[in-house]
Specification:
Elements: E1 4-8, H1 12-23, E2 27-31, E3 43-46, H2 48-56, H3 60-66, E4 72-76, E5 82-87, H4 88-91, E6 99-102, H5 103-114, E7 119-121, E8 126-132, E9 135-140, E10 145-148, E11 150-153, H6 160-165, E12 170-184, E13 193-199, E14 202-210, E15 213-221, H7 226-231, H8 233-240, H9 246-258, E16 260-270, E17 275-276, E18 279-281, H10 284-287, H11 296-313, H12 318-347, H13 352-364, H14 367-375, H15 382-385
Parallel strand pairs: 1-2, 1-11, 2-7, 4-13, 11-18
Antiparallel strand pairs: 3-6, 4-5, 8-9, 9-10, 12-15, 12-16, 13-14, 14-15, 17-18
Helix pairs in contact: 1-5, 1-11, 2-11, 11-12
Protein name: FAD-dependent monooxygenase
Keywords: Monooxygenase, Oxidoreductase
Domain FAD-binding: 5-316
Length: 391
């Protein structure tokens, strides 16, 4: 019952699936458009079941070694006045401690665990695929044609394979620009304390990585398309936060001069079916909940674990395996996409009334209420954690 499986996209979801499926004895081929993997990338906060699954895979300690300390969150208004000082320990008292790490470092931990075991073809994409006789024939950009029992598409938010072979899927523009990156230098910030400025239609955060480096992340509401945003990114960043305190201005100016910037527009993928024959969507390619769900990386890891679980459980019935995976993930993806919408309304309000309401709520809530507000949405049911299908 061992299968030949091609995974298109060697990101977090793809490499998690590669590791789990290789350990089950399947032949795995990973293709990726990148020429090489690096540790670069924006910050993610791996939480709840995402941390637990990485622990089950034996990778949690390596993640912690690569992580950035996260002790406190300072929530500030646009003038730099404190709204709320929150302890990560108190927030996470009812769930697994989150791990603050760059996406690149999380990816690197996964890559190290599989690079000597799995064939990875870099600088390679899918040109064409055909299905027949319960097989998938994949024509690569290199000209090679590979036959497989299963193709896992984990190409990310803007997957070209999804667009071509899952016509009912839709990519929703979330109308939020994400900008982030890292900057070396000596800044007067305490390592372990994240500073986040809340405002109407925007949010700005500073992450002290270590004594010699900081990272910034911001969200800006915009209806402009991605090419227009990318062309005007530097000016947009500067103009959007030009009235902020001098310390923020200083960081932004340094970042625009010396930092490495990542720019993208956030989106959500709506795929009525994650399966098309022997082709299956995984991770952001199939059910992206945006970074505002707080669980994008964790959900990619969970999806990979669920897919591996069903492939092992129904080893003699690939169709049943894939449909079980689809049935499990559909309501879960909707839940986390709903969380993202709610978080956008709370943390990036559209008007002054919304900002005032949330600021009042946030500043007056008890620690227990804050913990509930920030962690209840991270939880899966016990049935979902054990991959039990909905009735």
């Amino acid at each position: 019952m061992k299968k030949r499986i091609i995974i298109s996209g060697g990101g977090i979801a793809g490499l998690t699936a590669a590791k789990l499926l290789h350990e089950q004895g399947h032949e795995i081929i990973v293709i990726d458009k990148a020429r090489a993997f690096t540790k670069a990338g924006f910050f993610v906060s791996l939480k709840s079941f995402g941390v637990d699954i990485m622990d089950q895979m034996g990778l949690k300690e390596e993640l912690i070694q690569e992580a950035t300390p996260s002790l406190f969150m300072h929530w500030l208004d646009a003038e730099g006045h404190m709204i709320r000082d929150i302890s990560y320990e108190k927030v996470n008292q009812n769930t697994t401690q989150s791990i603050l790490i760059t996406r690149g470092c999380l990816h690197h931990v996964l890559y190290k665990s599989v690079r000597n075991e799995i064939n990875i073809l870099f600088d390679t994409t899918i040109e064409h695929l055909e299905q027949h006789d319960q097989k998938v024939n994949v024509t690569l950009s290199t000209g090679a044609v590979l036959e497989a029992d299963l193709l896992i598409v984990s190409e990310g938010l803007r997957s070209s394979t999804r667009a071509s072979y899952f016509p009912e899927s839709q990519l929703e523009d979330f109308n939020l620009l994400y900008m982030g990156g890292r900057l070396k230098g000596n800044y007067p910030y305490t390592v372990g304390t994240v500073r986040t400025y809340l405002d109407v239609n925007k949010m700005f955060a500073i992450y002290p990585v270590n004594k010699e480096e900081i990272a910034i992340q911001c969200y800006i509401h915009t209806t402009d398309n991605l090419p227009a945003v990318q062309e005007n990114a530097q000016n947009l960043l500067k103009e959007t936060f030009k009235t902020y305190p001098s310390e923020v201005q200083h960081v932004i100016n340094d970042f625009l001069t010396n930092g490495l910037m990542f720019v993208d527009k956030m989106g959500m993928v709506h795929a009525p079916n994650l399966v098309n024959g022997n082709v299956v969507l995984l991770g952001d390619a199939g059910y992206c909940p945006t970074a505002l769900s707080g669980m994008g990386a964790s959900l990619s890891i969970y999806g990979a674990k669920a897919l591996a679980y069903f492939l092992a459980t129904y080893a003699d019935d690939l169709a049943l395996s894939l449909q079980s995976y689809n049935s499990l993930l559909q309501p879960i993806s909707k839940k986390f996409q709903g969380n993202a919408r709610n978080n956008a309304q709370s943390f990036i309000p559209k008007n002054e009334a919304g900002l005032a309401h949330f600021t009042h709520l946030f500043s007056n809530a008890t620690d227990e209420q804050i913990s509930k507000l920030m962690t209840d949405q991270l939880i899966l049911t016990q049935e979902q954690l054990h991959f039990t299908l909905p009735a």
